[in-house]
Amino acid sequence: MVEMKYVPTICPYCGTGCGLNLVVVDEKVVGVEPWKRHPVNEGKLCPKGMFSHEFIHREDRLTKPLIKQPNGEFKEASWEEATDLVAKKLGEIKDENPDNIGFLACARSPNENIYITQKFARKVIGTHNVDHCARICHGPTVAGLARTFGSGAMTNDFKSIEEADVVFIIGSNNMEAHPLFGRRVIRAKKNGAKIIVADPRFTPTAKLADIYMEFRSGGDVALLNAMMKIIIDEGLQDDEFIKDRTKNYQRLKEVVSKYDLKKAAEIAEVNVEKLVEATMLYAKADKAAIVYSLGITEHRHGADNVMSTANLAMLTGNIGRNGTGVNPLRGQNNVQGACDMGALPTDYPGYQKVVDVDATRLVEQNWTCTLNDCAPGLTVVEMIHAAAAGDIKAMYITGEDPVLSDPDTNHVIEAMENLDFLVVQDIFMSETGKYADVVLPAAGWGEQEGTFTNGERRVQLVRKAVNPPGEAKVDWEIMKEIAVKMGADPEQFTYNNAEEIFDEMREITPQYKGMNRERLERPEALHWPCPDENHPGTGLMHVNTFAHPDGMGVFEPAEYIGPSELPDDSYPLILTTTRTLFHYHASMTRRCKTLDNELPTGYVEIHTNDAKKLGILNRELVKVKSRRGEIEIPARVTDDIKEGEINIPMHFAECAANMLTTSKELDPKSKMAELKVCAAVVEKME
Ligand code: SF4
CDD domains under this entry (predicted)? Predict the structure, then answer.
């Protein structure tokens, strides 16, 4: 008899965190059905979620550990052999210096795996060199909103956007990247809200706008400062809010006073009439919400961009009420959770700083250990630089693919090749896995229990539908085995299930303290902060006070710095990178047949006038070069991008955008690389 069941879980792609049912027939996931009662997406899914199951049973899943042989080929090995080798090599390098080892946690993975990854790095190895892809995604959100609001996360819940009178979207193409959040923007518009979009591309999101402001990539601070100057000049600031709830206003006034319309037009190349019109609309609204995403964060001044959005919201009193706030749309399904779990070189779980002695004592007490020291570790890009320089000798990478996803691919490959020992733990052989000494097969989405935390801080249960393929194991089980082989107290890694890890985690994570499995069983789940078991969770933050110890918001004015690399005679165009509706990163969506059929390869978007000058036709194969590399890629000639700029989606290894991007200069506040701007040239092929 055919056995069929529905297993409710959470989409594995973007930070919207939609609920869906996996349809399981005879131990195989055969489809996805909407979860009608789910509060985030109310039974709707975007194409990525709808076909998310298609990668699960792929034949190219990793099913056995692999060890690289002296001839460079991988050979299948037993778990015993593979974990012995990993424990031995990591042990040797740890004995020289624990800080010679770096860890990348996986933001696609449940919180429980991420918690164990950072515990393994800190407790078993003795290093704070643990980070993950938020560094080059929303690292500036964590840094920028923590400085201004005291908490580096979305201020409101998703539903709140429907109550806005004005929605100001900057650097976010949510109709493609976060479509089920985008649905709420459409609802807000239907409710009468005016939509402002600022973006160098006339995206599907921009096409919804009442006011579309095209501007030059990297000009964000100048644009936002000019908006604040207009508001102050017109007396539209919220004096009462500023006086009662904020600090440092005079300094903000001084800085933004330098950004008049002429300067904004010069730097950001924005149409000043539209800028004034948009500013007036935002400032005069009773409830105005800001929405942003990677267009704001992926710059060497990403934290300045984020702080400028927070300054704008505080200046107009648009915080602490539904329909207002600063709403960063997080990228990966669990990138919020990965930050919360302390997969950060500066922070333990719950954003407790590693330089804070009291926080260190709390963690030591819970883990019954002495932690190595209190100095922060290295971030993602710093680890790559250190590996290229020979200062990091081993890396343990779970579920991330820096060769494809991180800036300057050739430099990342150089770093991977330079390592003495590389462990990659993943569900497929990734671009990075090819450089590994040991590849460990991991259980994927639908094959394990745990929790994801979405972009609105909602902590949701993910459930197991089927067993992992072959000998693949759950991340925390693999790390538990290696930890014990490396001499860790087995008592400290004795977990029988994900719930036990969650319970340990919440003991040291104030924001999660009041959550437990029973409370998370409801589709609504719980938003953090949830400090005790009677607390209902917090959808709307900063209602009466900010999260700083004194309760005050802090204006953090920023001067325009601009991109690290600007166009010149040799490289006359600005290259920016984006995502598409049909792909998330690469390894999963490109293996979903339906999604790959929709968009089987990459392209470079180039403005019609620029294409004409170069004699380039739509769909023609062209060469795109930067100072770091070159790729061949089909041209997509369009009016939907600013003249002088080109755009390449980042998903496609065969024409990888990151061959061209730069990691040379990092944001000093967040260590973000400049993924959204570099100088490039497009050449017609012979
Ligand atoms: Fe999944 Fe995001 Fe699409 Fe929702 S909007 S179905 S979470 S990819």
Answer: MopB_CT_Formate-Dh_H, MopB_Formate-Dh-H
Interface pTM, i.e. ipTM: 1.00
CB of 589 closer than 6 A to ligand 1?
no
The C-alpha atoms of residue 84 and residue 82 are separated, in whole angstroms, by: 5
| CA atoms of 29 and 185, how far apart (whole Å) | 32
Q: What top-level class would CATH report for the domain 4-55?
A: mainly beta
CATH architecture of 573-684: Beta Barrel (2.40)
Fold (topology level) of 66-135+338-517 = Rossmann fold (3.40.50)
- State the average pLDDT over residues 181-200: 97
Whose tokens are 């969770």? That residue is 537
One-character DSSP codes across 49-113? HHTGGGGTT-TTB--S-EEE-TTS-EEE--HHHHHHHHHHHHHHHHHH-GGGEEEE--TTS-HHH
Over residues 424-453, the pLDDT tens digits come to 999 999 999 999 999 999 999 999 999 999
- Could you please report the per-residue DSSP string of 407-438? S-HHHHHHHHHH-SEEEEEESB--TTGGG-SE
Ligand 1 center to 399 CA (angstroms): 19
672 close to ligand 1 (CB < 6 Angstrom): no
pLDDT attached to residue 126: 94
Residue range 122-145: mean pLDDT, rounded: 90
547: three-class secondary structure by DSSP: coil
Closest C-alpha to ligand 1, atom 4 = 18
Ligand 1 in reach of 387 Cβ (< 6 A): no
Q: Where are the domains of the chain?
A: 4-55, 66-135+338-517, 155-329, 573-684
Beta-bridge partners for 195: 167
Helical spans, DSSP H, in 105-207: 111-119, 139-149, 174-177, 179-190
Check if 149 has its Cβ closer than 6 Å to any atom of ligand 1.
no
Beta bridge partners of residue 167, listed in sequence order: 195, 289
Which ranges of 138-178 would DSSP assign to H, the alpha helix?
Answer: 139-149, 174-177
Pairing of strands 621-625, 4-10: unpaired
CATH topology assigned to domain 155-329 = Dimethylsulfoxide Reductase; domain 2 (3.40.228)
CA–CA distance, 456 with 471 (Å, rounded to integer) = 35
Exposure string of 53-74, with b = 16+ CB inside 10 Å and e = fewer, is: bbbbeeeebbebbbbbeeeeeb
Q: Which amino acid does the sequence have at 350? A: G
CA 145 / ligand 1 centre spacing (Å): 24
Three-class secondary structure of residue 256 per DSSP: helix
**Tokens matching residue 538:** 């917090």
For residue 655, name the pLDDT band (cuts at 50, 70, 90): confident
Please indicate whether residue 669, judged by its CB atom, sits closer than 6 Å to ligand 1: no
